[in-house]
Amino acid sequence: MSSSLHVDWCSTEAAAYAVRRWHYTGDLPGGKLARLGVWEDGAFIGAVVFGNGATPMIGRPFGLGPDEVCELVRVALGPHRCEVSQVLAISTRMLHRAMPGLHLVVSFADTAQGHDGGIYRGAGWIYLGASRYHIYVVCGRPVHPRTLHSRYGIGGQSIEWLHEHVDAGAMRVRTPPKHKYALALDIETRLRLEAMRRPYPPARAGGVGAGTDDYQSPGDGAKPIPALETGTATPGRRRREASDAHPDMP
């Protein structure tokens, strides 16, 4: 069944609502973000969020600086009929128009969540292989190193500092592999990526092999602005009500 799809810049509150309700992490990452809301048939169904990435060295493998690369950090969608690949295509086009200095978007599919990145394969992203990373467990909750740096400064990524100042039981944990995907925003970068392309991983059994396209059952979350929740606002009104909607990434 066809649906009317609309993607527009949205507020932090709307993006946080979507992530709390429909993404397995339950929260927005730290750092500067660019946020796009997604509406289907006038109803708010989620958000797509871009950030600076897990490390300032994110562009190094591609010969790009930190301001030339960003990471797709959240795709948080509730029940929907539209193709996630279409949502990603519109979102990345809007991001590039707003930030013409960007050349590349990267994202990761977490195998610990059963994801293999089918949404990126469907959207034509290039697969770059699997990598292992680490996270911290602080006060009983998993926390990304970048979030700790945002909260506590450089000391936040030292397990010794965390033991002394935050949580004596904090742990540094190596994660299961994550599949890495990238989307070039210009021809020159695309040619560079093609030389790094690897075969797509096998799709998971019983599905198309989604990355972050699985949605969680509705749960508690901060309420978005009423126009987002009810889906009654026109696109122009949505822009006015989401006054902080424009991307604040450098």
Characterize the structure shown.
There is one protein chain. This protein has 250 residues and is α+β, with helices and mostly antiparallel strands. The chain has 2 domains: 194 residues, Gcn5-related N-acetyltransferase (GNAT) (Aminopeptidase, 3-Layer(aba) Sandwich), CATH 3.40.630; 41 residues, no CATH class. It is 26% helix and 25% strand. The protein is built from 8 helices and 10 strands. A 7-stranded mixed sheet has the order 1-2-3-4-5-10-6, sandwiched between helices. A 3-stranded antiparallel sheet has the order 8-7-9. Helix 2 links the parallel strand 4 and strand 5. The longest helix is centred in the middle third of the chain and has 15 residues. About 16% of the residues have low confidence.
Please give the structural blueprint:
Elements: E1 5-9, H1 12-22, E2 33-40, E3 43-51, E4 69-77, H2 84-98, E5 104-110, H3 118-122, E6 126-131, E7 134-138, E8 141-143, H4 145-152, H5 159-165, E9 171-174, E10 178-184, H6 187-194, H7 226-230, H8 235-241
Parallel strand pairs: 4-5
Antiparallel strand pairs: 1-2, 2-3, 3-4, 5-10, 6-10, 7-8, 7-9
Which architecture of the largest domain does the CATH hierarchy give at level 2? 3-Layer(aba) Sandwich
By DSSP, the count of extended strands is 10
Distance from first to last alpha carbon: 39 Å
Which bin fits the share of residues in helices?
25-40%
Category by helix and strand content: alpha+beta
Mean pLDDT score, rounded?
A: 80
Number of domains: 2
The poorly predicted ranges are 206-246
Rg calculated over all Cα atoms? 18 Å
Give the CATH topology of the largest domain.
Aminopeptidase
Count of discrete alpha- or pi-helical segments spanning 4 or more residues: 8
Across the major sheet, the strand order is 1-2-3-4-5-10-6
Reported for the largest beta sheet, the result is: 7 strands, mixed
Order of SSEs: EHEEEHEHEEEHHEEHHH
Q: For the record, what is the CATH homologous superfamily label of the largest domain? A: Gcn5-related N-acetyltransferase (GNAT)
CATH class membership of the largest domain: Alpha Beta
How big a fraction of the residues is strand? 25-35%
What gross morphology would you assign? Answer: globular
